[in-house]
Amino acid sequence: MKRTPHILLMAAALLSFGSVGCSVFQEDGGGVTKGERDVSGKLSVALGGSAPGLETIVIDEPFTALEFENNDPDLFDLRVDGNSARILPRASGIGYVTPVVNGRARDPIEITIPPQRLIQILIGEARGELVREATTEPVAGGEVVTPGSVSVTGDAVAATIRNRINTINDGGRPSLFLADATDYESDPPLSYYDAVIEATNGSVYQFSPVQPGDPSHSVYLDAEAREDVDEELLIAYDQAALTAAAVFNGETEDPTGGAFAFYSPTPTQAALIQDALATGVKDLPAGCGTSDANFPALAPVQVLLLKDVAPSTAGQDIPSFVFVRSRADFEPAVVLE
To answer: Which of 16, 77, 178, 246 sits CB 3.0–4.6 Å from 88 for a disulfide?
Structure first.
């Protein structure tokens, strides 16, 4: 394992040793799974702005000379102040900063700047779950999301979007998900996310918050800049930034097993899904919220229930989201993982 210098990625939060990307989940007692990811040597920064401290590298050891080498100036600028360097993002991507302490280069710090549209759609689709699942710590005047905070539901929703991109890049066509082919290839990989998230044929939108007139549309638009986000949604925004970064850089493995769609079932739909799960039927029941006819090129399809995804409300067993993926002919129509 590489040696990690004494570096802070957030005020009073010393980096730990451990396997990067490892997540440990614990139940909070209210049906919501919480957890933290080891972010040693990593930093996630949003183009639309990050919470104070989350965009800063701090050297927390004595030194006589200190430099921060910006290995990717096309992605971000550095604002150095004493023993700290603040990341000022310019574009989405993955870059590195190398601290040079007393003339000795330390291991580079990985800087991930995810597509802002991915942050926006997470807030548009799953802001309530992001708030409930975020791991926070108190600060003067409130609380902040910890640098390693994990949202199980956010991971699954964002991975579904990434799965659409992977499906297209593995030989599919952008039109499979109503994405414009020219937009899709205009500036990869950023354009992959933008084109898939904002895909529409002019009347049907793949993600409802993108559609003008949708109740979540203004929330989606406001999340382009953190300063425009309502105060009560700042926890959701900051968690979305961390979630988007971990999916964008590949640190988050796909928890859905290849799902390419998700939806929030109504109580009636949830009951039908539960009955199908209990009986092990091969065909999705009519009225459950999806069908093979919705995805003919990817049929037969299967509804996936993820046990760690947050319920729709604290007092209900209805999942906030179920996921849709292709299945083999011999597999049941509904599974729980």
So the answer is: 77
